[in-house]
């Protein structure tokens, strides 16, 4: 122990923070680490951001392909956002949400409710997406307890889903690998199929696939009992699962089944919210559904401040107010609920979205999709898909078998490494590259991005051929 302490003291004296890569390797635990390298890993060190670009520690400028983690929607280095955070911190840096409130959070809730579909009227703020999903689920449990339905707590989720890294939200996750070594509240969750058209059974039409998904949903409720199921949680477009755009009409049909069975529909818009599909929320404006709750985070502040939240239906709140248990306590709150700095920057971010960024996204998205689609010419690419300014290039060993893994365990990482050299940060996901650039990206910048990705994939194909891993 003394030796570790001496080392720490020597480090602090020597570095003063100048050798961040080395310090990170010794003292940081990165998210999603492997046991064999936990606490001993350095990742690309990013020093600056500006618009759609970030600069790494070697001075290389990169297009920020994933916009951070699907979040830097209005781009890096927006002075308006920095200034509003400074001004709010100087006016009021924090207030306790237990006994007091602040104006930015109330104004933001009003504006968010104004953009939300149906009767979603009230916002509970959290610190990010996981805590937003967690809050929605705890609210569902509370709601059913107060209504005298304590058995109605199970949650429907789907393969390919990602809903967070807190215990309950993570229990909903359905991507391969995520849960192999992790525990979860499995007894509370029922997993259904991912609505992934690319992975539908060979020879099945899209219409038949949609029917299959809907029947599975309905049959599961019939088997388990609607009186046992409290909520369905779903991303309108499964983001981290590989930008899975569901077949037309699927979400509307699921929404109706939930309504018919008194199951709360929670639309997880942590990625799709705040402009990614050209609208503040995609549930209503893109998919025509009015959920009981919408969870959001990320783009609400364009990543400038950790903030998330749940928008809750007026109907549910009214039921609670009128219930026989006016003294039932929703024992749930976070120190940073309704943070004034987060809400102030979110208000300014929403101004930017409303005053041009949403319209720009709508204008540029078809071009983004069309250019990305040209990558299907490459034999390693099985499918390019997407909507709005989110896209995915899925690589497969061959298009017939669509096998992603015979190729290599981490083809996405190989592509990312080449693209990094060429000036583009990619979000690699096993055999997929996910692209979700800042929404302010121009057509010329889309051309640059796609050209680099094309070259990165071509170089990867060369590598795989040389290594004899692939014969495409
Ligand atoms: C759809 C979705 N929900 C929830 C989360 C969790 O959000 P956070 O990482 O802010 O806790 C994510 C994160 O990527 C997400 O994509």
UniProtKB/TrEMBL annotation:
<dbReference type="InterPro" id="IPR015421">
    <property type="entry name" value="PyrdxlP-dep_Trfase_major"/>
</dbReference>
<dbReference type="InterPro" id="IPR015424">
    <property type="entry name" value="PyrdxlP-dep_Trfase"/>
</dbReference>
<keyword id="KW-0808">Transferase</keyword>
<keyword id="KW-0663">Pyridoxal phosphate</keyword>
<dbReference type="Pfam" id="PF00202">
    <property type="entry name" value="Aminotran_3"/>
</dbReference>
<dbReference type="InterPro" id="IPR005814">
    <property type="entry name" value="Aminotrans_3"/>
</dbReference>
<keyword id="KW-0032">Aminotransferase</keyword>
<dbReference type="InterPro" id="IPR015422">
    <property type="entry name" value="PyrdxlP-dep_Trfase_small"/>
</dbReference>
<protein>
    <submittedName>
        <fullName>Aminotransferase</fullName>
    </submittedName>
</protein>
<dbReference type="InterPro" id="IPR049704">
    <property type="entry name" value="Aminotrans_3_PPA_site"/>
</dbReference>
<dbReference type="GO" id="GO:0008483">
    <property type="term" value="F:transaminase activity"/>
</dbReference>
<comment type="similarity">
    <text>Belongs to the class-III pyridoxal-phosphate-dependent aminotransferase family.</text>
</comment>
């Amino acid at each position: 122990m003394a030796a570790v302490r001496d080392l720490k003291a020597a480090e602090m004296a020597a570095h003063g923070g100048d050798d961040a890569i080395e310090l990170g390797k010794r003292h940081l635990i990165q998210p999603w680490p492997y046991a064999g390298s936990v606490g001993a890993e350095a990742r690309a060190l990013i020093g600056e951001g500006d618009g759609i670009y970030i600069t790494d520690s070697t001075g290389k400028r990169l297009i920020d392909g994933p916009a951070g983690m699907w979040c830097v929607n209005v781009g890096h280095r927006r002075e308006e956002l920095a200034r509003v955070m400074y001004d709010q911190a100087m006016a009021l840096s924090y207030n306790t949400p237990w006994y007091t409130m602040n104006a930015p959070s109330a104004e933001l809730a009003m504006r968010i409710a104004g953009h939300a579909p149906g009767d979603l009227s009230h916002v509970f703020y959290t610190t990010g997406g996981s805590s937003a999903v967690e809050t929605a689920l705890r609210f569902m449990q509370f709601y059913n307890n107060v209504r005298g339905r304590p058995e109605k707590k199970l949650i429907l989720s789907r393969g390919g889903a990602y809903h967070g890294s807190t215990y309950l939200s993570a229990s909903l996750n359905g991507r391969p690998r995520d849960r192999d070594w992790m525990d979860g509240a499995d007894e509370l969750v029922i997993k259904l199929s991912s609505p992934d058209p690319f992975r539908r059974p060979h020879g099945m039409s899209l219409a038949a696939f949609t029917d299959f998904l809907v029947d599975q949903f309905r049959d599961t409720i019939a088997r388990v009992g609607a009186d046992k199921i409290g909520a369905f949680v779903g991303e309108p477009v499964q983001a981290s699962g590989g930008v899975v755009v569901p077949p037309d009409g699927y979400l509307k049909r699921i929404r109706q089944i939930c309504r018919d069975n008194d199951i709360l529909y929670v639309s997880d818009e942590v990625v799709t919210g705040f402009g990614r599909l050209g609208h503040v929320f995609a549930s209503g404006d893109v998919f025509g559904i009015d959920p009981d709750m919408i969870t959001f985070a990320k783009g609400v502040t364009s990543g400038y401040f950790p903030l998330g939240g749940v928008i809750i239906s007026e109907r549910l709140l009214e039921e609670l107010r009128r219930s026989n248990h006016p003294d039932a306590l929703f024992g749930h709150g976070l120190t940073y609920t309704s943070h004034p700095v987060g809400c102030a920057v979110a208000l300014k971010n929403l101004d930017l979205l409303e005053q041009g960024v949403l319209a720009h996204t709508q204008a540029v998205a078809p071009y983004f999709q069309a250019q990305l689609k040209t990558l299907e010419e490459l034999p390693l690419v099985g499918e390019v898909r997407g909507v709005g300014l989110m896209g995915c290039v899925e690589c497969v060993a061959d298009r017939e078998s669509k096998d992603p893994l015979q190729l290599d365990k981490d083809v996405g990482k190989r592509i990312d490494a080449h693209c990094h050299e060429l000036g583009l940060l990619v979000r690699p996901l096993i055999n997929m590259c996910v692209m979700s650039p800042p929404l302010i990206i121009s057509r010329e910048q889309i051309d640059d991005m796609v050209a680099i990705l094309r070259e990165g994939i071509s170089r990867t194909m060369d590598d795989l051929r040389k290594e004899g891993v692939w014969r495409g």
